[in-house]
């Protein structure tokens, strides 16, 4: 993904925005593979009602520090699942008039979208199972695992 992003934004000023908390590992590793100069910012959102299901209600807990009007923005997420959170974030950020806004995600869960959300850069497409590790959590645990794996029903 890093090479593709570097080619696509060569000669442009790119702001890479990580969606906290889950995307912090993805963003750090992705940044190491982007060969063009970039700036970074973060947003934190909450949308999970229970530990495994989205509530559908999205709250911005930490907004951007940078203005994005007339800027190229790359939103980095750990996983695209229902699409509800990302749809809200993308609509909210588009109201701020960026030159462009695209989505990069480590994982795109197949067959779970409740709203259409397109990711321009996708690391892996996965089956609709609950996964943890590499930034992804269950009840705030397992983010530190150096891999992504399914979470056994009995561990929940």
Walk me through the structure.
This protein is of the alpha/beta class. 17% of the residues lie in helices and 36% in strands. It has a single domain, classed as Rossmann fold, CATH 3.40.50.2020.
Question: What key phrases describe this protein's structure?
Answer:
156 residues, globular, Rossmann fold, alpha/beta
Compile the SSE list and pairings.
Elements: H1 2-8, E1 14-20, H2 24-32, E2 38-48, E3 54-62, E4 72-80, H3 84-94, E5 100-109, E6 121-126, E7 131-132, E8 149-150
Parallel strand pairs: 1-2, 1-4, 4-5, 5-6
Antiparallel strand pairs: 2-3, 7-8
Number of domains: 1
Average pLDDT confidence is 93
CATH class: Alpha Beta
Could you tell me the CATH topology label: Rossmann fold
Give a quick summary of the entry.
The chain is of the alpha/beta class. It is built from 3 helices and 8 strands.
């Amino acid at each position: 993904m890093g090479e593709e992003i570097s080619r696509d934004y060569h000669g442009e000023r790119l702001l890479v925005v990580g969606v906290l908390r889950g995307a912090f590992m993805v963003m750090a590793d992705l940044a190491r593979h982007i060969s063009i100069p970039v700036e970074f910012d973060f947003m934190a959102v909450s949308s999970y009602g229970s530990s495994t299901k989205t509530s559908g209600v999205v709250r911005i807990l930490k907004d951007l520090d940078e203005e994005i009007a007339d800027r190229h923005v790359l939103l980095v997420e750990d996983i695209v699942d229902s699409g509800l959170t990302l749809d809200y974030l993308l609509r909210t950020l588009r109201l701020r008039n960026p030159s462009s806004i695209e989505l990069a995600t480590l994982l795109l869960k197949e067959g779970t979208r409740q709203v259409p959300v397109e990711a321009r850069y996708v690391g892996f497409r996965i089956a609709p199972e609950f996964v943890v590790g590499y930034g992804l959590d269950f009840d705030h645990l397992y983010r530190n695992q150096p891999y992504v794996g399914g979470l056994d029903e009995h561990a929940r």
